[in-house]
Amino acid sequence: MRKGISEVVGLVLLILMVVVVSSSFYYWYSAGQSDAQIKTESFQADIFDQVVSRTSSIIDAVYDTNREVNVNNFAEYTTRLCADEKSIPMDASDIRLELYEGYGADTDIICAVSGFDGGCNSNSTTLFGILGGDSSTTGIYIVKSTDGTTWTTSQVSSAYSDYGKFNFTYLDLFVEGNNDTINPENMLLMGSGRHSTTGNRKSVLTIINNKLEGSSYDITDLDENVTVYEDAAMLQDIPGGPFNLFRGGALVSPADSAPKAGILTRQFTVYDTPERLPGLGAGGRNFQGTKITAIQPILRGGAPQLLMGVTGNVDAGGVGFIDETQELGAGMELNYASPGTICPYNIQSFAQCGISIDPGACDLSLDGISDMLYVPEFSGNSKVGNSNPVFIGVNNLTNSTYKLPSIFYTGYSMDQSSIHCLNLAPIGVDPKYEIVEMKYHKQSDQVLVFMKDQTRTPGFQLVAIREEGGQYDIAALSPPVASGLIPITFDTLGDFVFISGTNRTHAVIERINVTFGSVGEPVKVYSNDTYPELQKFLTYTPCIDRKPYCKEGCEAPLKKGDCRALTLSIEDSSCDISKYAPETTFTVRLGIGQFFQNLEIFTKKTGTSTEVNATRFN
Known about the structure:
Layout lengths: L1 H16 L5 H9 L1 H15 L14 E3 H5 L6 E7 L12 E7 L6 E7 L5 E4 L2 E7 L7 E6 L6 E6 L5 E13 L9 E11 L5 E8 L5 E4 L9 E9 L8 E9 L6 E9 L7 E2 L13 E11 L2 E10 L8 E7 L4 E2 L13 H6 L15 E7 L14 E10 L4 E9 L1 E2 L5 E3 L10 E9 L4 E8 L6 E9 L2 E6 L9 E8 L2 E7 L4 E9 L2 E2 L3 E6 L4 E8 L2 E4 L2 E4 L10 E7 L15 E8 L3 E8 L10 E4 L1
Helix pairs in contact: 1-3
């Protein structure tokens, strides 16, 4: 306690020296000294060690409200520090901060934090589903559950309140810049809908956070009436450079969405106008009558590339195939069938799948690629350079006697691609089934492959891929399951697998128990009589209590006589002030190392989002 009093006395003497700078600050601290001392007494002993070295920066703090109203960025507290008397260590672990609402005697402490290394204190897992289908109901609705039993349905996008008949093609996690310490982990939703009055089609590009708040981006697209995006990926086209959002899809007929040509696009942020990569097709592949249905970041020779899965529109002369980029910036593909290109398909493994591969033509017959899944949890396979695997879901792989869904795999990081085939024929997969999605199930440590009857007859099947000693074994967890549900998508929550789809009039969710080697009977846990389909599922485990993070200014010690900006990311942490009203005043007490302490006051102002053409919705 004596130490705390001596610090306060020393601080008052220093403030007297800077009273010309701000007499109002001196009045605040003198009037509120006793009360403030009582409120912070328990924190001083643990957080502040020695006397202040600088108090001249009094009302210089900035709180970045722009970032608070942007869905992609955490709000920040920024101040300018100067080492007037001695150097300051500036290590993130040595930063201590107390944040108060108000100033003077009437202050309430919001947080007291020691260490700004970042990280997560706690998180929560929720299963989200997006409702859609050919219905006259308008607006985007989402269903969610944390236990798989109790479900909540709510509207999340007033931006699309005049649109219905949604067809959602993509829902997955998204982090702007690919750094979830600096930017939040949200959900990226893509698809299309039609205006309830005019019938005009509109592309959906929406980011949704874990609080079901977000932004819809009315970007200038290539032509939103004739573009459909099927998959997305964040990656660097230049090692060490910024992460860009790549999207794969197609130019389509505005009347029936039939694909006319596969496309790849790139944009620097989600709200930028996408650039169509001009090199696609320059490698010799024909993308007419196709759509790019799956893209997966890979490393080839240490360089980032995209593995592409293409589904063909047979009526338009398109064929399905697998390929990859060789020049990511332009999107030019490698083209396995080009003379001089080493064919990546492992001839022996494909022979086991009943497929003969001509190493020169390097071609095989398939309808399309439904999904690709990188599984870092599996050990590296010696057949693919001991790299962790990327699994590829293939529909209607064709040989001389039958068509059958199949699983291929390749390595994530290799000098050149090597693709192997896992034969599903011996495990009793029904040829009329097609692969929809693949997801890693942590509880059973296996990849689950979800298949449905392509004739839209009720029923689904699950296939499991297990890893043992770098080898990948497959097993049918059950025969095709008889069910009244026409399945569309699936995901996992805990020990359970949740299947969603339609019974032709209602969106329905069924739950089954999954263990290694078997599944339980389906149990219906949700039905919606407004929307006819539940089209996309996503299990989402965001951090709900972040540790504040030093974003800028902690790289090196601050030398005596120098000044530097210090930026602390505080949103979604114990210091979060995003819910406080504009014009609220805050007091910040900042300590670094043993000898530096700074006191500042700032007022929260109304912010305008810096994200271009963003519509915020709740």
